Description:
With 386 residues, the protein is α+β, with helices and mostly antiparallel strands. Among the domains are: 90-129, no CATH class; 230-385, no CATH class. It is 37% helix and 24% strand. The protein has helices spanning 39-49, 63-83, 107-113, 133-146, 151-155, 159-168, 177-186, 195-209, 229-241, 295-306, 362-385, and strands at 4-6, 9-11, 15-21, 24-28, 90-98, 104-105, 121-129, 222-228, 245-247, 257-260, 264-267, 271-273, 280-284, 311-318, 325-332, 341-354. Strands 9-12-13-14-16-15 form a six-stranded mixed sheet, with helices on both faces. A three-stranded antiparallel sheet has the order 4-3-8. Strands 5-7-6 form a three-stranded antiparallel sheet. A hairpin with a 2-residue loop joins β1 and β2. α4 packs across α6 and α4 crosses α7 (177-186). The longest helix has 24 residues, at 362-385. The protein is elongated. Residues 55-61 and 212-217 have low confidence and may be disordered.
Amino acid sequence: MILQSHNGFYRTSNVMGFVGYGNEQLVIDSRFSFGEKDYFFYYLLEKVMGFPNIVDMSINADRESLLLDLMVFLFPRYLKEALRKGPFKTYIWRQYNDSSVKGSIDISRHIVENTPFVGDVAYNQREYSYDNDLTELVRHTIEFIRRKEYGKSLLASVKEEIALIVNATPTYEASHKQKIVFSNLKKTVRHAYYREYRNLQILCLLILRHQKHQISSGSRQIYGLLFDGAWLWEEYIYLLVTDLFYHSMNKAGIGGQRLFSKNRGLIYPDFISRSEENRVIADAKYKPVENIRNKDYLQVLAYMLRFSAQKGFYFYPSNKDGEQEHQLWVNKGSTYEENVEPRDDLCLVKHGLNIPECNGSYKEFSFEMEKAEKSFKSKLYAYINE
């Protein structure tokens, strides 16, 4: 759900970004931001996605330039994910005109190119090659981004991947861009194994065509770029605690655990501590502390039971300095026997990271965030080791 009308008001879910419809533009800020600029959203994008801090989500920004820039900033991440499976290789048809015929003769082209006949034959040959329409499309996108003022700095993180693409496209010609774009529009990547290349192909086409993503078929189109705030928060937290915790990724199906024997009950705890002796479970929650309740408790308690952990944590963003820690001791006993009391060996801790209120520059906000991160980590170490 992106936007919902409810009792005369509009509400959103965890998404952040912007959506345009015709001449209207809706900016969805983070619920933990202050002031006119959504610095917290910018900060998450910079840390998790590697976006430069020049991202400007101002309502007065030119929406076409903003959308294009955001898509360009996504390119290094999509390129990395695709090339983890190696350069894309597929069958293509190449045209030749020489005396070593190895494929099917192209009679019409042979007549045009070899009259009068001097010994060469025009033919087509099917080859399994890295230099295909998709890698050519990626190469054209790389060259497009290089021409931007921030292009070199943006692509610096994917130098090795770019070198692979450049080496795989010896027939690259800048003048062939429209032909390559049209070919990729006609023939999209469909094999499930190459879904990362499919995503990269779509992104490259959007960048090179400067095209808003069309949802409706009418003259007024819905377009925009949205991010899952809960996912951004979870990945950001992992960057802070990676030395302490393993991190599963349920969307990618990585790090799944089983709750029961006989391969039953697939679960994906956000964070499992690396220490076996003092096992700790943690869950990232992109919500205010008062909204962490009910099913949230049951989920983490089940994970704690599964991994014999005595401590569980909720990592949440806080906008109330000094109110980041809430310890909850699990009860024992029953109201029927009137012997309910807290246990001393099973505890849940709501551990918040304070989001600073900053009306200055983004640089000042980043400095305050770094201080908040240090405080968050030092208190977490103390809780785990006490």
